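DATA SHEET
Item: assembly model
Revision: 1
Owner: S.N.
Input lines:
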Amino acid sequence: MNNLDSLPKKKILSLFMTCGFPTLNQSKKIFNEILSHQPDIIEFGLPFSDPMADGPIIQEANKLALRSKLSTQQSLNLIKELSKSKNNTSFVIMCYLNTVRKFGLNKFIKNIKSIVDGIIIVDLPFEEEGEIKKSLSENNIHLIKLISPMTDKKRSQKLLEGSKGFIYYISATGITGSNKLDYLDINKNVHSIKKMSSVPVLVGFGIKSKKDVINISRKTKADGVIIGSALIQKYFDLKMDFNKYLKNLKKFIMEVKI
Amino acid sequence: MKTYKQPNTVGRFGEFGGMYVSETLMPLLLKLDKSYKKIQKDKKFKKELNELFKNYVGRPSSLHYAKNLSKYINGPKVYFKRDELNHTGAHKINNCLGQILLAKKMGKRRIIAETGAGQHGVATATVCALFGLPCYIYMGSKDIERQKPNVFRMKLLGATIIPVESGSKSLKDAMNEALRDWIKNVRDTFYIIGSTAGPHPYPKMVRDFQSVIGKEAREQILKVEKKLPDYLIACVGGGSNAMGLFYPFLNDKKVKIIGVEAAGRGAKTEETAATMTSGTPGILHGSYSYVLQDNDGQIKEAHSISAGLDYPGVGPEHSYLKDIKRVEYFGITDKEALEAFQTCSKLEGIIPALEPSHALAYLIKAFKNKHKNKVVILNMCGRGDKDLFTAAKAIGFDADE
């Protein structure tokens, strides 16, 4: 059973959060809150010292998580603990390749098998995925593909071959948490991806509010959205008052569930 | 004997190297690789670059017989390949000219770069001034503090300096930020990477542009000594000056090659930048190579008195050359480098940068009273002007007096 294989047809909501942010204990509370809303997908970010594809907000979240020497094993244990109440929510890990390599691919898979449905390795391009993809697929974990506005049609075709779970469409040539959303451009590209693949297409990067979520749903053919930086940003907006943040998070998630 | 032919078509030096970047950058790197392959065959490009080397940089750089230092060591005959005499004071300009010509061919209108010691930043700002392109330099705030003269130089040359406050506030973090800028502005921006690090094709491209050093040195030494050198020595941070000198000699099996890393306060301490002595293979800045990392793969902060060597990674080709044992790598501490910095200044009348001071320190230490009748070429890859304040402070000389 892989929850990603039975995602709803429309308005898929995926919420990203960094593991261990701001502390391991508080992180548990945050994930419990997120999980209580039963979003379609939760993306668990494994903190990395040099998250070069992430913007300043997630970068800061990584830094806070690593402040107390959070280990990969602790992050995976957290995910395991939460999986007891996961129900239909899909669990996806988002990380950098060095984390997986250093932990050991087989050991990593052993830890997440039957718990995690998919994995996004941000800095693992299609050209380098060979062995990793094979091992993941043998254990029924989908390797989620990223497509950017820079990816041309020919490359998309190769990339999408045999793709499972969902496709992460990077809505802007930017890092996570960037500004502009160009709906016309997004729609054009999502449309072209959908012609090549029947897997749901989720739009991520730069989605900040209920309005953005509604616009993506109305103005594009995308099957859903991924929200990350906006979820974390609130913590800093609220001057790191954790209790206030938790309440605010609840309100925000209820808003973006359209 | 098998001829050396690395990397392969996907940028692998043995198992090292590769392209580990997000999908936003992948298409661009592939295109860069293609464009680079094309200009390699372009005679006009070669001619343009050679002319700039000759008339703008002042190449060929001389090969100086360091008589006094040789006498002091009481060992081999030591030659300096004097790339510190280049315009802008270091080897970095060789690569920047190559890359900016490529950027122009690719129609890019905005240049970004990272810098540690500021030498690459100065070289990039220089070529941007020459070609009239806007230039943005990412530099760790710690390095801005310790490399003030270069910061002012870059500003004079018209570059915008963007201070980087994240992480260790030095070269690694500057590179992270430059990569982020590139992801954001991928359409119009060309990223001039200054070392043989980063994703393919950078390690190959930078090596190729820098290999003018080794090619000249080879011709020059054959002329004066009528034979190849017995040893090559260069300092290694990311590794561009070293690859530049080493590469044209890799097939000459009799030439022993030594790379010298910055061991900071000691290769066995936490305060080191000796990646190959103290690190393990991992992925940093888009390539698989030796890195300083903990058990969870978190990259450690490096330490060296020399901002140019203060990097927890190293170019993938060096990792390969280490593993196949073609090049040997050793660490030199801050203290040893500072001593050599002074020795060379007094004996040869050449104030070396702190980076090649590491190579000098190894030479003095390991060759003292040994290897007589042998010939050594050491890459004097930068001059020490930029380090005067740092060195004065470390030696305890009050520069304000």
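QC remark: The first helix of chain B runs from residue 26 to 40.
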